[in-house]
């Protein structure tokens, strides 16, 4: 091997020599649009099936390795050329599609706008391995749906030269890791060049030295993804390794990557001439970019930090995917001091002011700096990724908004989804095309009415397609399993037994996800003898296919994998449990298309969403899961099965016992019998009916087209409109808002409620009104600067208002000396014991939809109560 230390190496590239008649093949290959269009994939399979598999489904590499005589033969193949032009025409139609916003004018902003979507990982296709799991799949699907909706969105990430680790197991079943090089010249990726034809480059300061990064572009249909890469000659060796591995290295490496992603990502967009109107941070990894936007605003307008933050925060959206604080990136204050030693002055902040932005308790100088807290403090909008996760997130971060009831914490939720065409089997896509209409469901997969036609699909036709997917999965698993055992140096008889591994027609359970302890991959192994009895049933055979990686530092997760491998060896003669190494998009696709049941067993509250179950559902694979993440709200008994009913146990060992037994009971008493209940033609009619319900109900609700539409309606367009309002006239409104907040904070201690009048002694009937009058001391604040509210709701046994609602009271009289009277009426809609409290929050148009930390005043007097409807009845008697 010759390296640059011995001799100067001059680089050049060789590209495929495609004959003119098939030159369009190269254009399709360099746009990952092909990855979700079976007709395009089929083109590359026709070129050379073996090369397609050997390249890990990489069309650029495959075309570069394809023998020239094969390319020349294709250039004379009229059938191939016709298919090529048909696929290219589909790509052209995609690139010129009418934007979804243009078809929905009520959501369309007043002018063109751009959204920049930041993520540490993107899973677009298996050959571009810059992802680790669910977060990356979600980000990749987000870009694909944005492309299908023709949304004005660009992606920003990092280009990891060695990607995420590759997994293999040793003879004992212990996970081992290695990192493979990404051959950038043979990937669907291209350099971004400047006006002089050189690769576009930006720089960031890291611990008092400048680090350079070049920009690469991935075309995702009509959406561009820009990736930063520090492996350039100008950098020191250590800095060239910053973008070496995804989630690799120590906390020093992590903060370097996150500074590059956030600050460098914003600078990259500027170098590209892109000034995004809205920033969407997918997790907190890119939160430093919010600081860079503040810095640029200060430079442009000469305003203060607070004034710049008002404007930039209006345009920032933060999506959290983590339901536990331990999963958040947190840095020791000394690390922040070292890396932001000079940067903080450009924000017009001292170092303590900067550190406070990442602390829940701004007064605790020893608290670690949290990227999630920074993202929340720098964004006017935040959301979780399922209804339950939104609730958990409000509980996690409630300390940032002291005094605000948990249900009013300004963190919403947008249900995750999956990109349907990327994960559905080609056979099912063709079936859906025929019965639902190719144009309708592909262009608007979130339309529930479109999917209702799935009921018209003949049961036997859907079942035969699913059986072919299972057979394809079994064949692929046998080949993969044999290759694994050969690589392990297994005994010849074990290798030969792979030919009998699994059964084409047996009930197949899939379990594939990250092997973290909370996901409890071993729950199904808890009573191994009972499981073996199920797997060994000759009349109703069952088989289990498992895949997943543990983080390299997660010893407990690796132990779970080892335990699973030991279980597989109970069936060495005729394998009924198979563990597939190196879980990635390709493995996932085989599993979610070919399994009959998708198993998910997390501890409730620890699974933010769980998109693998959605991928299975859109293929008609039924879910059996703990009620957590998306399944907590999606579950119906005609769609799948629930393990438990959402119970939470203090004793985790007891919980595992109870829920494992519940799982075995479901399998033995309900699921397996239903699967094997067949008609005279061998079709499980009741099972297929559930498959149809599953596809028809869950596919429109849990796909990323619906998700991206929801982000656009609920977050992107409102953020654009608010930030445009604050930006007007050289940030006049943003400066005014910062001044208003400063004034409120100065005057807030003088607020007082002097008098509350409400007839709580006389019982009220349902739908009657409770009249409330309040005299409040506002000091020097005017009534239109505030909102005086009655916060009303049912009381629990501890006299706490649960699920309360706030009702504005109307200013009716200035009593002088800063005292004002407010009145209002609240209509009671349910019986029971209720209570209300008086609170004051900021008012005016500028504060609409914004909950400002620290600016909430509660009247501390005991809240009055009034009798329940039952009490009213007893009084009347």
The CATH C-level name of the largest domain is Alpha Beta
Query: How many runs of DSSP E, i.e. beta strands?
Result: 29
> What is the radius of gyration computed over CA atoms, rounded to a whole number of angstroms?
30 Å
Q: CATH H level of the largest domain: which superfamily?
A: Glycogen Phosphorylase B
The residue-averaged pLDDT reads 92
Q: Give me the number of helical elements.
A: 31
Q: How is the main sheet built? A: 10 strands, mixed
Give the DSSP E fraction (strand runs of 2 or more residues): 15-25%
Task: Write the CATH architecture name of the largest domain.
Answer: 3-Layer(aba) Sandwich
State the CATH topology of the largest domain. Answer: Rossmann fold
Describe this protein with a few key phrases.
globular, six-stranded parallel sheet, Rossmann fold, 17% strand, 4 domains
Account of the protein in words:
- By secondary structure, this protein is α/β, with parallel strands linked by helices.
- It folds into 4 domains: 20-95, no CATH class; 113-416 and 712-726, Rossmann fold (3-Layer(aba) Sandwich), CATH 3.40.50.2000; 456-699, Glycogen Phosphorylase B (Rossmann fold), CATH 3.40.50; 751-876, Immunoglobulin-like (Sandwich).
- The chain is built from 31 helices and 29 strands.
- Helix 27 (631-634) links the parallel strand 19 and strand 20.
- Helix 11 crosses helix 12 (305-314), helix 12 (305-314) runs antiparallel to helix 30 and helix 21 (459-488) crosses helix 25 (585-594).
- Residues 862-877 have low confidence and may be disordered.
């Amino acid at each position: 091997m010759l390296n640059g230390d011995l001799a100067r190496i001059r680089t050049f590239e060789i590209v495929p020599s495609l004959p003119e008649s098939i030159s369009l093949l190269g254009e399709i290959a360099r746009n990952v649009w092909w990855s979700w269009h079976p007709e395009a994939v089929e083109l590359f399979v026709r070129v050379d099936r073996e090369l397609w598999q050997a390249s890990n489904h990489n069309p650029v590499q495959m075309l570069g390795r394809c023998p020239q005589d094969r390319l020349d033969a294709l250039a004379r193949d009229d059938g191939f050329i016709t298919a090529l032009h048909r696929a290219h025409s589909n790509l052209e139609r995609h690139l010129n599609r009418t934007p979804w916003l243009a078809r929905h004018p009520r959501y369309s902003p007043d002018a063109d706008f751009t959204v920049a979507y930041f993520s540490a990982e993107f899973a677009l296709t298996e050959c571009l391995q810059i992802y680790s799991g669910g977060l990356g799949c979600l980000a990749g699907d987000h870009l694909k749906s944005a492309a299908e909706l023709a949304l004005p969105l660009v992606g920003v990430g990092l280009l990891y030269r060695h990607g995420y680790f590759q997994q293999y197991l040793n003879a004992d079943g212990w996970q081992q890791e290695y990192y493979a090089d990404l051959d950038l010249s043979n990937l669907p990726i291209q350099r971004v060049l400047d006006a002089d034809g050189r690769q576009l480059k930006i720089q960031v300061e890291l611990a008092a030295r400048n680090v350079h990064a070049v920009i690469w572009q991935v075309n995702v249909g009509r959406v561009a993804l820009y990736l930063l890469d520090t492996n350039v000659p100008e950098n020191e060796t250590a800095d060239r390794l910053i973008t070496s591995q995804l989630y690799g290295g120590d906390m020093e490496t992590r903060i370097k990557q996150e500074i590059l992603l956030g600050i460098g990502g914003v600078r990259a967009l500027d170098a590209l001439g892109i000034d995004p109107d809205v920033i969407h941070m997918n997790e907190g990894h890119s939160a430093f970019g919010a600081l860079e936007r503040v810095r640029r605003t200060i430079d442009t307008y000469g305003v203060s930090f607070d004034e710049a933050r008002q404007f930039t925060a209006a345009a920032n959206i933060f999506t959290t995917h983590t339901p536990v604080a331990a999963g958040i990136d947190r840095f020791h204050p000394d690390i922040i001091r070292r890396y932001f030693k000079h940067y903080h002055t450009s924000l017009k902040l001292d170092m303590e002011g900067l550190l406070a932005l990442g602390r829940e308790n701004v007064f605790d100088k020893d608290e670690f700096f949290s990227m999630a807290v920074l993202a929340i403090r720098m964004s006017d909008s935040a959301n979780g990724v399922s209804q339950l996760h939104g609730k958990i997130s409000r509980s996690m971060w409630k300390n940032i908004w002291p005094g605000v009831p948990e249900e009013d914490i300004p963190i919403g939720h947008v249900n995750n989804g999956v990109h349907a065409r990327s994960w559905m089997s080609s056979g099912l896509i063709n079936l859906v095309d025929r019965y639902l209409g190719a144009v309708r469901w592909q262009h608007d997969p979130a339309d529930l009415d479109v999917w209702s036609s799935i009921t018209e699909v003949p049961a036997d036709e859907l079942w035969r397609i699913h059986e072919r997917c299972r057979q394809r999965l079994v064949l692929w698993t046998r080949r993969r399993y044999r290759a694994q055992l050969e690589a392990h140096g297994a005994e010849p008889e074990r290798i030969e037994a792979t030919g009998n591994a699994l059964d084409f027609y047996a009930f197949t359970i899939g379990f594939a996800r990250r092997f973290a302890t909370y996901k409890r991959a071993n729950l199904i192994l808890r009573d191994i003898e009972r499981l073996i009895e199920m797997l060994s049933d000759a009349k109703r055979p069952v088989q289990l296919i498992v895949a997943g990686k543990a983080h390299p530092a997660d010893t407990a997760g690796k132990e779970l994998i080892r335990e699973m491998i030991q279980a597989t060896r109970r069936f060495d003669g005729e394998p009924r449990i198979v563990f597939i190494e190196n879980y990635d998009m390709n493995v996932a696709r085989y599993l979610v298309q070919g399994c009959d049941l998708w198993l998910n067993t997390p501890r409730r509250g620890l699974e933010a969403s769980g998109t693998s179950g959605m991928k299975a559902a859109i293929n008609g694979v039924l879910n059996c899961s703990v009620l957590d993440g998306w399944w907590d709200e999606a579950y119906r008994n005609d769609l799948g099965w629930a393990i438990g009913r959402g119970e939470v146990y203090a004793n985790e060992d007891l919980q595992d016992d109870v829920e494992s037994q519940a799982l075995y009971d479901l399998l033995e008493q309900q699921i397996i019998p239903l699967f094997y209940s067949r008609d005279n033609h061998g079709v499980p009619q009741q099972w297929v009916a559930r498959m149809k319900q599953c596809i028809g109900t869950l596919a429109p609700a849990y796909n990323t087209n619906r998700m991206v539409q929801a982000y656009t309606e609920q977050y992107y367009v409102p953020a654009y409109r608010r930030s445009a309002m604050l930006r007007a006239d050289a940030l006049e409104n943003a400066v005014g808002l910062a001044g208003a907040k400063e004034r409120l904070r100065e005057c807030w201690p003088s607020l007082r409620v002097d008098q509350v009048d409400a007839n709580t002694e006389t019982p009220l009937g349902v739908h009657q009104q409770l009249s409330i009058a309040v005299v409040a001391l506002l000091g020097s604040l005017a009534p239109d600067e505030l909102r005086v509210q009655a916060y009303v709701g049912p009381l629990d046994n501890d006299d706490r208002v649960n699920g309360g609602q706030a009702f504005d009271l109307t200013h009716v009289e200035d009593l002088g000396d800063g005292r004002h009277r407010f009145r209002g009426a609240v209509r009671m809609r349910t019986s029971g014991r209720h209570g209300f409290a008086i609170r004051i929050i900021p008012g005016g148009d500028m504060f609409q939809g914004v909950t400002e930390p620290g600016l909430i005043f509660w009247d501390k007097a005991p809240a009055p109560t009034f009798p329940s409807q039952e009490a009213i009845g007893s009084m009347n008697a």
